[in-house]
């Protein structure tokens, strides 16, 4: 397998480095995978691990609940024209009625609070029709097959998140396979329906939640296909312009915005282009999601807005009180230097209200993730421009912004895991972002261990290791265990070897050598009390450094107040730099592996 990294080129007119093109990995069969320059380290780490195995063992086929399940379900998706089981055969594969109700409740409670391409009422109608043996053939065979696909993939996610079932229960994979068979039977690519595309979007979420699909290889093309079908169906144009019935207009709006959001967020994770640009869209938000019962902005509306304006730093300030996450506000020291202010401006965590707590923490995570993807190339550029003190770089505000956001992410994930360990452990995205934040802090320890922020970095890396260690013991997940091992120091290596191996090995180097796991160099001789005290001092230093960056940046940036956050300063500094012609493009230092 060959790793092709784009070479840095120089502009003839400005002699400034152009942006890195990312990484392209090609194996001997010709299969290729591209990661953009700002893709998260977990994707690259997993790719490196895959590259070491020329042949990978395929996942054992899930055991069947009954002998009637067709054994060829994997062979025809997503192509039409291949023999598939009949509707009557698929109906016999439905789970028992009571168990099916339990699966739906698990889906609604533990998954649909975040992603809901189809309304609960729509799924309930399909559920009732599927279990009604006297249902008349009011819909076409194609349409009914796609409805069943939505029902079965809902069962799959329900089984995956059902706390009464073991993690990665085989029945979840079985339901997913049946859903694929239903889509093929429904000829969904040539005759797409709303519910068929809802099933496709939901299927992408399912794959990303499983061990085999966590690398995104299955989810990414499914969501891309869904976005193409959405465009072909005109869902990016609001249905009211054609005087469609209100319920159909709402279904189209909900499906579009759920698909658009996950496409944008996942494109950020992979550092790849999204499927559709905002200027081509005039679809309104679903009405039922625009406001909560008391008239305030809902979680979904805030999520949809974030997908549109992920580069606007002021969005976070405008969140309604009930959607704010206290853990995140306390960790954002430049925005809330006084902890009491952060507490007063956010609701107390309510463990009894699962949905509200999940919404608060996840929205805060999505916001910090957006800042991280925007600022990370400039964070790396600052580390390269001014290694001894990156805050003195022209991108110093970006450096501080990334550190603060990584701190927020680690506090969010560890705090939510402490509240709801069994639920949090089954949502992949929390752990993806925790790993990214830990790797970012690790670069500080390796690049400049004498940095004033190093104690904070060490504390947060150790906290991440502890959380990964805890979840790997409770949750039988090879991916979690690999992340824990990758971050954990190898005590047998002396400092010189650690310094040689740590971060200096390319994250993906499939040609000449095996990538070594990351080992954190600093020894553990410092007591916990001393480390906590030093980390607290580092947090104060972060707030003070943000203030200095504010003084420096706001002298030339109009309309900034004294409570401007480091994120806003960083964004404006970048825009000002571009306007002045000092940086025609994103800096070349786009990958953590390029830091040292």
UniProtKB/TrEMBL annotation:
Pfam family, one: Fungal_trans
Lineage of source species: Eukaryota, Fungi, Dikarya, Basidiomycota, Agaricomycotina
Cellular compartments annotated: Nucleus
Entry's Gene Ontology BP terms: DNA-templated transcription
Organism field: Kwoniella mangroviensis CBS 10435
GO cellular component, as recorded: nucleus
Region Disordered, residue ranges: 1-71, 576-596
Protein name in the entry: Xylanolytic transcriptional activator regulatory domain-containing protein
MF-aspect GO terms: DNA binding; zinc ion binding
Biased composition (Polar residues): 57-69, 585-596
Predominant place of localization: nucleus
Classification via PANTHER family: UNCHARACTERIZED TRANSCRIPTIONAL REGULATORY PROTEIN (PTHR31001), ZN(2)-C6 FUNGAL-TYPE DOMAIN-CONTAINING PROTEIN (PTHR31001:SF56)
């Amino acid at each position: 397998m060959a790793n092709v990294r784009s070479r840095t080129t120089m502009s003839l007119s400005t002699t400034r480095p152009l942006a890195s093109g990312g990484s392209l990995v090609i194996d001997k069969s010709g299969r290729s995978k591209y990661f953009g320059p700002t893709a998260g380290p977990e994707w690259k780490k997993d790719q490196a691990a895959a590259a070491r195995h020329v042949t990978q063992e395929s996942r054992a086929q899930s055991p069947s609940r009954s002998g009637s399940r067709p054994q060829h379900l994997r062979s025809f998706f997503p192509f039409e024209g291949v023999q598939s089981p009949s509707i009557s055969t698929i109906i016999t594969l439905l789970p028992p009625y009571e168990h099916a109700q339990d699966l739906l409740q698990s889906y609604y409670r533990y998954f649909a609070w975040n992603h809901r391409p189809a309304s609960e009422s729509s799924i309930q109608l399909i559920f009732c029709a599927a279990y009604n043996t006297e249902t008349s053939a009011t819909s076409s065979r194609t349409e009914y097959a796609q409805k069943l696909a939505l029902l079965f993939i809902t069962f799959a996610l329900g089984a995956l998140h059902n706390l009464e079932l073991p993690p990665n229960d085989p029945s979840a994979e079985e339901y997913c396979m049946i859903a694929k068979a239903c889509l093929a039977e429904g000829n969904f690519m040539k005759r797409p329906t709303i519910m068929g595309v809802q099933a496709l979007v939901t299927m992408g979420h399912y794959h990303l939640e499983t061990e085999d699909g966590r690398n995104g290889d299955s989810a990414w093309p499914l969501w891309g296909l869904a976005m193409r079908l959405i465009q072909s169906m005109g869902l990016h144009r609001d249905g009211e312009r054609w005087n469609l019935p209100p319920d159909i207009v709402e279904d189209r709006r909900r499906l579009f915005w759920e698909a658009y959001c996950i496409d944008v967020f996942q494109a950020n994770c992979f550092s790849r282009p999204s499927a559709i640009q905002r200027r081509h869209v005039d679809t309104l938000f679903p009405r039922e999601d625009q406001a909560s019962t008391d008239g305030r902005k809902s979680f979904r509306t805030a999520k949809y807005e974030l997908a549109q304006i992920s580069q606007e730093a002021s969005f976070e300030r405008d969140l309604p009180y009930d959607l704010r996450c206290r853990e995140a506000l306390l960790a954002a020291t430049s925005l809330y230097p006084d902890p009491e202010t952060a507490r007063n401006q956010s609701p107390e965590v309510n463990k009894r209200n699962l949905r509200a707590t999940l919404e608060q923490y996840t929205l805060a995570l999505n916001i910090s993730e957006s800042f991280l993807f925007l600022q990370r190339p400039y964070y790396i550029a600052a580390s390269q421009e001014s290694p001894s003190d990156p805050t003195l770089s022209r991108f110093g505000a970006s450096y501080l912004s990334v550190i603060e956001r990584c701190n927020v992410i680690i506090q969010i994930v560890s705090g939510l895991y402490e509240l709801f360990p069994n639920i949090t452990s089954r949502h992949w995205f929390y752990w993806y972002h925790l790993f990214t934040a830990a790797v970012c802090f690790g670069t500080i320890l390796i690049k400049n261990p004498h940095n004033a922020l190093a104690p904070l970095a060490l504390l947060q890396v150790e906290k991440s290791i502890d959380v990964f260690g805890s979840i790997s013991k409770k949750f039988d997940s090879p991916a979690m265990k690999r992340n824990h091992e990758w971050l954990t120091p190898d005590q047998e290596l002396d400092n010189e070897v650690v310094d040689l191996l740590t971060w200096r090995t390319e994250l993906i180097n499939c040609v000449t050598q095996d990538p070594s796991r990351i080992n954190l160099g600093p020894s553990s001789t410092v007591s916990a009390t001393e480390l906590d005290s030093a980390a607290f001092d580092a947090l104060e230093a972060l707030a003070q450094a943000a203030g200095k960056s504010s003084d420096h940046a706001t002298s030339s940036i109009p309309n900034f107040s004294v409570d401007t956050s480091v994120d806003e300063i960083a964004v404006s500094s970048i825009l000002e730099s571009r306007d002045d012609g000092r940086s025609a493009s994103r800096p070349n230092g786009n990958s953590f592996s390029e830091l040292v």
